[in-house]
Design a protein that fits this description.
Radius of gyration: 45 Å
Structural class: mainly alpha
Number of helices: 3
Number of strands: 0
Oligomer: single chain
Distance between the termini: 148 Å
Shape: rod-shaped
Length: 111
């Protein structure tokens, strides 16, 4: 009887190995081929580059638009500054402070 138990133990072990090998073969069959994975990686990289290029184009448009608006703001501030200087000068003239200032700035012409 002892021989029967020992004889069945290798058969059970062999059956376990065969089941493991069968399971492993099924799992390996589910793994896509390397060439497909490489192709997909290349496609993903190309899609990523297209996305980056599109994002760069959008950023360029925003920067150009912002630059134009910033130029307009600078021009407007310069115009307001000029108007403030003119009004300040007129106010000084009305208060009598401008008379002394213009006297020194007026060139003297001799006949």
């Amino acid at each position: 009887m002892r021989f029967d138990v020992e004889a069945e133990a290798p058969k059970d072990r062999l059956k376990g190995y065969q089941d493991s090998i069968s399971s492993l073969q099924q799992q390996v069959a589910q793994i896509p081929p390397i060439s497909f994975q490489v192709t997909r990686a290349i496609e993903a990289t190309a899609e990523n580059k297209k996305g980056i290029d599109a994002a760069n184009d959008r950023i360029d448009r925003v920067v150009e638009s912002f630059g134009g608006k910033l130029d307009n703001v600078i021009d407007t501030i310069n115009k307001v500054s000029t108007q403030v200087q003119v009004l300040s000068s007129k106010l000084d003239d009305m208060q009598g402070k401008g008379a002394d200032k213009t006297a020194f700035l007026t060139p003297v012409i001799r006949p």
